[in-house]
Design goal:
The protein has 218 residues and is of the alpha+beta class. It is built from seven helices and four strands; from the N terminus they run αβββαβααααα. The chain has a four-stranded mixed sheet with strand order 1-2-3-4, sandwiched between helices.
Amino acid sequence: MNGPMQHIRSVARDLQEKGYSVTIKPDRSVIPFELYPYCPDILATRDNENLIIDIKTSRASRSIERYKEIAEIIGSHENWHFMLSTVDVEDVDRADYTLPESQVDPDVINHMVDRLDGLLAGENYDLALPYLWSLYISAMRLAGQHAGIPIDATSDRSVLNYMYSLGEISGDEFDWARRFLQLRNKTVHHLKFDISRNELQSIYSHIKDKLVQWVGLA
């Protein structure tokens, strides 16, 4: 179930930069509960927080039921979390990992919608596009949580890859999301970037449909 070593080391470096003490391929004896025969790729600790991490490349196929079982065992212990991270082979050195802080919930989604409506009304299109992405990926994370998929602690790109690999989103949706992510990245990283209100409204309309489908938000 474990990922190639180069990807494991990449995630380990990122965690160390975030202040975690990291052990690659930890011995089972350092984990105070039974996971046999599973061995994690990484054990990361910081203060009272303990992360057990499995790295999966986007080309690999894994059993989600087994991941769910592992996540449930680990999550039943206080201050322990399971992190499943799907890494694109071509993006291993550029992944942006989001560590577990809190679950996305419908109230958060509703607040984001209210905030976004205000940005659009004020014609703050350069701010609205990244916010649209945050709304979209948060809704997808929530859909994954409802499906029992342990993706709360992975990068946005990992969420897309894993939801697609499990059949939770279609191929068309996956392609649309990747194009949207590229557009969002251009907005964030380029000083001069223009997008029209009509383009934004088209994206927002698509996301609203997903909000209904994924989180039941009317």
